[in-house]
Amino acid sequence: MRLSSRGILRTAFTVALASVTLVPAPSLAQNASAPTGDQWIHVRVESKDDGGETVRVNVPVEMAEKILPVINHQNLHNGKVHIDSAHMEDVDLRALLDAVRSSKDGEYVTVQSKENDVRVAKSGGYLLIHVTDKSQGTTNSKSKNHQESKVEIKVPMKVVEALFSAGKDELDVVAALRALSTFGDTELVSVKDSENTVRVWIDSKNIAD
Q1: Which of 156, 164, 207 shows the shortest CA–CA distance to 181?
Q2: Which of 54, 63, 84, 175 is most buried, most CB within 10 Å of its CB?
Q3: Mean pLDDT taken over the chain
Q4: 107 by DSSP, 3-state: which?
């Protein structure tokens, strides 16, 4: 079975980023003092272009939970995201989640090819997805301009379960946020490629590092 890098990344981000990327980002950034115990979602994007910008978004989880249900835009309605098909790249995500949830910790998928290195594992209550896309940039791997794209995702299984707790062909973003707010400081996503570095994490601070 041939795994396309685009399909792998899309599946991974659907699971890990649905609770973050759907927040109408910069306009919701907050800098007020956060009460002790409140959790904030942080997104930092750094451009590697000359004179590139750095974007920081800090959103309190509690605020995102209240705002998302009132946003109806494209596939987002009432805090839930409709997905066109439960099957992505011929993978039934619900069946996959159920299998991972009921299984012991371990490394479930390891793929090494000229295009991608992929690792999917479960450890200590977390779903771990590591993807290295070797096809980014020039096709000549010896070129100085060639740079791999690396994605590292770490999501609590309880958050993944909450995300898939909605009806068929839906992702419950609000439920995932509520589950996420019960965890302490957690690094969720790290992306590094030739154009940008992206970091997504959650902690009790109201400002990004």
Answers
A1: 156
A2: 175
A3: 75
A4: strand
For 72-109, the pLDDT digits (tens) are 888 888 888 887 654 455 566 677 777 777 888 998 88
pLDDT bucket at 45, cuts 50 / 70 / 90: very high
Q: Which two tokens stand for residue 70?
A: 């009132």
Q: Collapse the DSSP code of 103 into the 3-class scheme (helix H, G, I; strand E, B; otherwise coil) and give the result.
A: coil
* β pairing state of 40-47 and 126-133: unpaired
Q: At what angle do helices 5-21 and 93-101 cross, to 10 degrees?
A: 80
The rounded radius of gyration (Å) of the Cα atoms in the chain is: 18
> Which of 77, 64, 95, 70 lies closest to 170 in space, CA to CA?
77
* Owner of token pair 């699971």: 15
Does residue 137 register a pLDDT over 80?
A: no
* CB of 162 closer than 8 Å to CB of 179: yes
Residue with tokens 């997805």: 129
Task: Give the C-alpha separation, 25 to 71, whole Å.
Answer: 13
The tokens describing 119, both together, are 């690792």
State whether residue 104 is helix, strand or coil: coil
What are residue 121's phi and psi, to 5 degrees? Answer: -145, 165
pLDDT of residue 205: 86
3-state secondary structure 108-146: EEEEECCCEEEEEEEECCEEEEEEEECCCCCCCCCCCCC
CB 59 within 8 A of CB 25: yes
